[in-house]
Design brief:
Blueprint lengths: L2 H19 L7 H4 L16 H24 L16
Keywords: Membrane, Transmembrane, Transmembrane helix
């Protein structure tokens, strides 16, 4: 796997993990009882984006390392996938 491929794999993994972490622990302004004028009641009170980005970086690094090892060391190959017929 080239450096560019590894970098793209990490970026995609990071964004997927970030999108999975964004809704965790979010409290809406309506739940907090303090809706700012001009904002929807469902808007987050404190989204904690920076903390979630740090968590996403750590989790994505672990997930990326596992996926990288599976790809590079051939833990799972095309022959292992049942029903996969490569083009001849």
């Amino acid at each position: 796997m080239s450096f560019t491929s590894a970098l793209v794999l990490y970026a995609v993994t990071w964004f997927i993990v970030l999108l999975m972490l964004l809704p965790i622990g979010v409290r809406s302004q309506e739940e907090a009882g303090d809706v700012a004028p001009g904002t929807p009641a469902g808007a987050p009170e404190t989204p904690m984006i920076g903390r979630k980005m740090l968590w996403a970086t750590g989790v994505a690094a672990v997930v990326w390392a596992v996926v990288y090892c599976v790809i590079v060391f051939g833990v799972i190959t095309r022959e292992d996938i049942r029903g996969f017929a490569p083009f001849d």
